[in-house]
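Translate structure to sequence.
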C-alpha cells in the first residue's frame, strides 16, 4: 500500500529542483531571444533606392506587393524615370519565400528581424511605403489570362458531302 503523502513530496521535490536550477523560461514579450542567422522577418523597402522596376511585384507568388508607378525626375537629372509613388506589402498574404528580395536589382527590399505581425483587421496588415496609399484589396496580378475556347469543328453535313 503506498504511503500517504508520498506523491506530494515527490512533486515538491521537483518544484524545489527547478526553483534553484538554471532558468530556461524567457519572459516573452518583455525579453526576446536572438533570432537565428538568416531568419526571415517582415519585409521593408528603402524607397529612396527603389527604381520601380516592378520585378518584386511580378515575381511574388502570393500577389502581396502592389506598386503604383509613375514617371518623375526624382534625382534631378532632367530625365523622368519610373518612380514608385505607391508601394504596399500585404503581410496577411506573405509567406516569406524571399523571391522578391532575390529578384530586386538594387537590393532595396529586404527582411527585417520583426516577426510580430498582428492586427484585428486583415487590411491593417497591408503596410504602405509610398507617398500615396495603394488599395491592398486590388490584386496587382488579377487574372491568369485564359485563351478563348475554339469553336468545335462541325461534323460534315451528309447532303454537303454527297
Ligand atoms: S517574401 Fe515571397 S510571398 Fe512575401 S512578398 Fe516576397 S515574394 Fe511575396
Ligand atoms: S524589385 Fe526592388 S527596385 Fe524593383 S520595384 Fe521592387 S523594390 Fe523597387
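Result:
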Amino acid at each position: 500500500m503506498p504511503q500517504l503523502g508520498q506523491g506530494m513530496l515527490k512533486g515538491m521535490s521537483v518544484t524545489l529542483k527547478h526553483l534553484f536550477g538554471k532558468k530556461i523560461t524567457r519572459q516573452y514579450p518583455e525579453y526576446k531571444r536572438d533570432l537565428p542567422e538568416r531568419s526571415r522577418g517582415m519585409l521593408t523597402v528603402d524607397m529612396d533606392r527603389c527604381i520601380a522596376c516592378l520585378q518584386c511585384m511580378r515575381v511574388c507568388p502570393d500577389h502581396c506587393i502592389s506598386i503604383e508607378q509613375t514617371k518623375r525626375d526624382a534625382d534631378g537629372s532632367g530625365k523622368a524615370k519610373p518612380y514608385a509613388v505607391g508601394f504596399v506589402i500585404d503581410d496577411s498574404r506573405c509567406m516569406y519565400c524571399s523571391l522578391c528580395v532575390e529578384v530586386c536589382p538594387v537590393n532595396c527590399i529586404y527582411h527585417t528581424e520583426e516577426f510580430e505581425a498582428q492586427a484585428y483587421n486583415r487590411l491593417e496588415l497591408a503596410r504602405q511605403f509610398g507617398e500615396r496609399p495603394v488599395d491592398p484589396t486590388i490584386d496587382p496580378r488579377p487574372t491568369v489570362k485564359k485563351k478563348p475556347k475554339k469553336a468545335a469543328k462541325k461534323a460534315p453535313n451528309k447532303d454537303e458531302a454527297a
